[in-house]
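Page 37, continued from 36.
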């Protein structure tokens, strides 16, 4: 008997110790969840809470309001869904709507609905989805089923509230503003304030947001009761398992650099998310990849819902290894495991960078972020590193490497090992080679040419040209104003002739002008022939520069299609050190074109 008591007290002790350990572990076990909710979490495959879940869930479960700064990929959705399920527990037939989740986009709302159903599979809670794009009638029917939870976009929710007289939010006990910064930047502020007025005082309110702009902080002050602010340490917001690679290049080299990365740098079994600024860039890159035999998935804001679903599920099923997205579209996509993030356009805000790359190197996996940087992006790079409190270094120049090969390289290796980030160039030979190929592909496809134009224009924000500042209006006399106007016009003047032709007319370079005209005539003929045959050896690198003196001719050349086999042929490959002076002159003309197109891209890419 005594032995029996001893055994049972020993077992009890062990059980208690086990419970204590679990409670200390900070795992889901320590959160005292009801069996049905806990089973749902386990079934979903969550073993340990993510940092944002560990920090927010105990506070939410205790009933307090919370402002949590968390990005997509941090596990934020479960952080508010699990406590919600715990609070609601089961369906209450006459209880009315007890929880309301507001999402900025239809996709995010759908994603949240999916998670709610999965996590709440062992409860009988009823959910209604109120988002634009679905019929109002079917949503009326859902509302008639007495849902416990509404997941909605603000616009559609307001629409229902104005249409249905007896619809009320007075029974709501638990409100979540998900991706609140996005809700605000998408212009829902007014609706959100209106929704607040329809709620009762004794509700619990949660606000999840990647960033906390001042308008949002004001909103939180007004709508939340002594909220706890939860944010992860800045450093830990970028996974330590994420490698950061920054490449400096010129805007017009980006396509070549991307093709090279995808083809040569990134292993074929890795998945990458490519961030660009606009849907035109998404379409352009998608077409470019297709021409190169690479199938990618795409996703942008106003894309057709069915098409978007197909694209994303292909990527999730690993049938495609690339997903090209814009920032807004990326918010509603759930991709649990990702190897690489490529910033084709550098994000102008550090938090956006953190948000984007937060999708890689998750759950114990490693990952890499590749970012392209043009000269205009450099201040953003510095800004990002100030934000991350992380040192950044330039890769040693070729001279430095040559002078002190071991010393410089070992120092940079040491810096990388210490966690410093390094920015450097792509090998120019690689860029040149692939650029040629890219140019060929674009020139041979009318669709790509027009998509390229659209994406370049999407960047060019046409600000009206400015005149002299009014505070100087009295400083200048009439003559000076005329002189200024003339010199302003001169700045935009583009001569139709080459310098040699112009000089030739003036008399001093008569012989050269004659040569230029003759050369032009000969080459014009060549070009027409080349266009007809399409596959002839154009040796265009040598011929193009001289004929670019007229826009008309330039168009004709760009329409020509060169054979793929020529671009790798050593005979026509442009060396870094030009051996031919015509070629060099030609590159100068091209460089000018490059500057022109670059000019459109100097404005920072649009943020969220
Ligand atoms: P979210 O940040 O809510 O978009 O979640 C990103 C991804 O992380 C989703 O695929 C979730 O299913 C997943 N996730 C959330 N919490 C956990 C967890 N505790 N363990 C593993 N995966 C999780």
């Amino acid at each position: 008997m005594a032995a029996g008591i001893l055994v049972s007290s020993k077992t009890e002790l062990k059980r208690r110790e086990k419970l204590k350990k679990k409670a200390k572990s900070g795992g889901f076990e320590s959160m005292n969840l009801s069996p049905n909710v806990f089973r749902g979490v386990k079934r979903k495959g969550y073993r340990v809470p993510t940092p944002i879940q560990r920090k927010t869930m105990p506070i939410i479960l205790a009933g307090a309001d919370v402002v949590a700064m968390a990005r997509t990929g941090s596990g934020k959705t479960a952080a508010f869904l699990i406590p919600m399920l715990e609070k609601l527990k089961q369906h209450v037939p006459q209880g009315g709507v007890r929880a309301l989740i507001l999402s900025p986009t239809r996709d995010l709302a759908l994603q949240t609905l999916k998670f709610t159903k999965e996590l709440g599979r062992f409860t009988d809670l009823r959910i209604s989805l109120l988002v634009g794009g679905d019929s109002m009638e079917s949503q009326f029917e859902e509302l008639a089923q007495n849902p416990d939870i509404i997941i909605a976009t603000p616009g559609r929710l307001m629409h229902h509230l104005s249409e249905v007289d007896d619809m009320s939010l007075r029974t709501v006990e638990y409100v979540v503003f998900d991706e609140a910064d996005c809700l605000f930047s998408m212009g829902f502020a007014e609706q959100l304030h209106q929704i607040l007025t329809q709620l009762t005082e004794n509700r619990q309110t949660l606000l999840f947001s990647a960033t906390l702009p001042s308008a949002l902080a004001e909103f939180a002050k007004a709508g939340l009761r002594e909220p706890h602010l939860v944010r992860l340490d800045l450093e830990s917001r970028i996974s330590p398992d994420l490698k950061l690679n920054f490449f400096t290049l010129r805007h017009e080299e980006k396509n070549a650099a991307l093709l090279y990365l995808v083809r040569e740098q990134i292993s074929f079994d890795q998945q990458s998310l490519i961030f660009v600024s606009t849907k035109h860039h998404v379409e352009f890159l998608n077409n470019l990849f297709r021409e190169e035999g690479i199938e990618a998935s795409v996703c942008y804001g106003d894309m057709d819902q069915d098409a978007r679903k197909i694209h994303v599920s292909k990527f999730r099923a690993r049938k495609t290894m690339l997903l090209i997205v814009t920032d807004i579209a990326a918010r509603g996509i759930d991709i649990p495991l990702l190897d690489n993030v490529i910033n084709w356009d550098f994000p102008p805000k550090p938090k956006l960078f953190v948000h984007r790359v937060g999708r890689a190197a998750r759950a114990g996996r490693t990952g890499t972020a590749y970012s392209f940087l043009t000269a205009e992006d450099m201040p953003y790079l510095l800004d990002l590193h100030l934000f991350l409190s992380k040192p950044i270094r330039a890769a040693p120049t070729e001279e430095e490497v040559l002078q002190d090969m071991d010393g410089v390289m070992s120092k940079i290796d040491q810096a990388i090992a210490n966690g410093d980030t390094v920015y450097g160039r792509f090998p120019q030979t690689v860029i040149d080679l692939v650029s040629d190929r890219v140019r060929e592909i674009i020139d041979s496809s009318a669709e790509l040419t027009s998509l390229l134009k659209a994406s370049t224009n999407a960047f060019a924000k046409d600000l009206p040209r400015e005149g002299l500042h009014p505070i100087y209006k009295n400083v200048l006399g009439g003559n000076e104003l005329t002189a200024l106007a003339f010199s302003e016009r001169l700045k935009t003047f583009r001569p139709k002739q080459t310098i040699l032709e112009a000089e030739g007319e003036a008399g001093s370079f008569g012989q050269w002008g004659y040569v230029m005209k003759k050369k032009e005539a000969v080459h014009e003929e060549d070009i027409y022939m080349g266009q007809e045959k399409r596959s002839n050896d154009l040796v265009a690198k040598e011929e193009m520069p001289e004929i670019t003196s007229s826009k008309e001719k330039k168009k004709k050349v760009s329409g020509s299609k060169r054979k793929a086999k020529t671009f790798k042929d050593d005979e026509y490959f442009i060396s870094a050190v030009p051996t031919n002076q015509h070629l060099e002159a030609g590159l100068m003309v091209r460089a000018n074109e490059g500057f022109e197109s670059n000019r459109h891209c100097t404005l920072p890419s649009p943020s969220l």
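The longest strand covers residues 242-248. Flag for discussion at group meeting. The two ends are 72 Å apart (CA to CA).
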